[in-house]
Amino acid sequence: MTEAKKKILIIGIAGGLAQMTARLILSENPEWEILGIDSRDVSRVPKLPGLMALELKYSRGNFENLFRTHTFDVVYHLGRLSHASNTHNELAKRIDLSVMGTSRILDLCERSEVKKVIILSTFHVYGALPDNPIFLPEDAPLRASIKHPELRDVIEMDQMCTTWMWKNQNSISTVVLRPCNIIGTQIQNSMTRFLAGPIALSPIDYNPFFQFIHEFDMANILYKAMISIPIGTYNVAGDDFISFRQALDVVGTKGIPFPMFMAGGLNSALKKFKINVPDYLLDYLKFSCLISNHELKKHLGENHLRFSIKEALELIKLR
Amino acid sequence: MFKITPEDDQKITEIFSDLKKQYQGYQDPWGFNLELCEKTLRTIMPFYRSYLKVRVFGAENVKDYPYIVASNHTGQIPLDAMLITMAFVMDVHPPRVLRAMVERFMAQLPFLGDFSAQTGAILGDRANCQYLLDRGESILVFPEGVRGISKNTPDFYKLRTFSQGFYRIALQKKTPILPVCVIGAEEMFPFVFHAKKLASFLKLPALPISANLFPLPSPIDIYIGKEISVPDHLQAESEDKEVKENIFHIENTIKRMLVHGLKNRRPFMDPIRKPISKYVIREFKTKGFK
């Protein structure tokens, strides 16, 4: 039985993951309509039947107008800014977009009686800390900002969404997803760039473990979040994990041996040339932050991913 | 100076051949590396056999199922974890690599954190213990925690109050406890000054400054007691009072093993050690067991 026609809003449509999700939704449900918005340039968004992309500032007026002129059944909030820059201006912009923007979106979803809201958070909310136990569950404390206050917007946004989710649990089914590192050829994030570059710093004094998910699998889970995942917060990861050095070997990236105690200083120096990595990512090169997929598997089954970590890493070589 | 004996070399080859079959395809999220364990064991075997002359008593008490091995914590530098782990590989049948629980401090250390993780040590956390016990691994815990190491000379061999975490995990997983005591490790660094303020400034758990930089060849005896089962009527969330009674029993068992071990140890620096042994035994006897 085909589902009733739905109208979907995707916030952050300029991103590769949002586009893959839109393509997947429309391939499964060609009669559905998607409105994609982004504050970034949307000219590269593929022209698909059923998908309309708009470049739009995330101001209250614009948003209100959007919700007045359309009746959305589902809202995907995939529009969080990346943490590639840590300058003061960037932080202010991120807080405005991630926290204030999200607050506006949630408020409008509540008022316009949206039935389902899917929010993309990140596993970075847990933080890479030396005392992280393995396979952090969803109710583990969000400690990322203990060492990196610049991540507070990520945590604030996540907490705001989960609070809102339970407050509106009787009227809106909200799903907050905290995926591990998403990698792929279409996604533009720090981890993919770091791994797929010709060379990468390889710590000689630490060798933490990572979880990766391929962008296709992530898009698939975003789609399934709409149809088969009930209200709640979910970590998104596979069952496997890989050490950082092994990951570099699989991708074929040449690792430059480097002691991590010098990494902070080097990264600061590289900031002048704008080729640094975000400071918080350096911690992920020292300490593991592995998340549990137990809750997600209850709804999606044991084999919920198509690609293993090794396959996902091999695929980014095609970049 | 010290070389591995051909017998030990052959024994390590045989043991690790079996362990490799047992661990085939095994991967854990700390990077456990059996090949590195074997290599390390070969390197430090002379230190274990010829320098510290380790003797193991009670190996027959170990059966072929997972345990939580609970030991007293001794020494300024906690080499006891390494020695117990080696004993369970070399002198216990069936051999096994104990997964030692370590402090967060260890995980932070460059090189050493990674090395210890690859040779089986993991951060002492309940989730980690449960993960390993579910996979049939035996774990090594020091219920005294970091308070057990870096003792002043009058406190050698005195047990600090045991924490409850290990016992609650044992209750949850219904895993028997194997009491172990190590004799001799306290005297590896007999004269120490504890730079507590400097340790606090450097964010270290302890900073003992010793007259000797390398451990003295204090003979080591490792006693493995009979397993202590966890009672069926207790649960992981049982009240402190009930849990503490059982932990006291484990503490007392280890204390008795300590007294026995101190009475029967081999001669080494006796003018220093004998008064220490007498003092400790007298303390245990006058104050009694808990």
Structure description:
The complex is a heterodimer of chains A (319) and B (290). With 319 residues, chain A is α/β, with parallel strands linked by helices. Chain A has a domain at 7-183 and 212-237 and 290-304: 3-Layer(aba) Sandwich (Rossmann fold), CATH 3.40.50. Chain A has 11 helices and 13 strands. In chain A, strand 4, helix 3 (88-111) and strand 5 form a beta-alpha-beta unit. In chain A, helix 2 packs parallel to helix 3 and helix 3 (88-111) packs parallel to helix 4 (152-167). By secondary structure, chain B is α/β, with parallel strands linked by helices. Helix content of chain B is 43%, strand content 11%. Chain B is built from 10 helices and 9 strands. In chain B, helix 1 (6-22) runs antiparallel to helix 2, helix 6 (126-134) packs parallel to helix 7 and helix 9 (240-263) runs antiparallel to helix 10 (270-287). The model of chain B has no long low-confidence stretch (mean pLDDT 90). Classes of the chains: A alpha/beta (319), B alpha/beta (290).
How would you summarize what this structure contains?
By secondary structure, chain A is an alpha/beta fold. Chain A has helices at residues 16-28, 60-69, 88-111, 152-167, 190-196, 215-227, 244-251, 263-271, 279-284, 294-300, 309-315, and strands at residues 7-11, 33-38, 51-55, 74-77, 116-120, 173-179, 181-183, 199-203, 209-210, 212-214, 232-236, 242-243, 254-258.
Topology:
The complex is a heterodimer of chains A (319) and B (290).
Chain A (H helix, E strand, L loop, with lengths): L6 E5 L4 H13 L4 E6 L12 E5 L4 H10 L4 E4 L10 H24 L4 E5 L31 H16 L5 E7 L1 E3 L6 H7 L2 E5 L5 E2 L1 E3 H13 L4 E5 L5 E2 H8 L2 E5 L4 H9 L7 H6 L9 H7 L8 H7 L4
Helix pairs in contact in A: 1-6, 2-3, 3-4
Chain B lengths: L5 H17 L11 H18 L3 E3 L10 E4 L8 H11 L8 E4 L1 H5 L3 H7 L3 E2 L2 H9 L4 E3 L23 H9 L3 E7 L8 E3 L1 H6 L6 E3 L10 E4 L15 H24 L6 H18 L3
Parallel strand pairs in B: 1-9, 2-5, 2-6, 3-4, 3-5
Antiparallel strand pairs in B: 6-9, 7-8
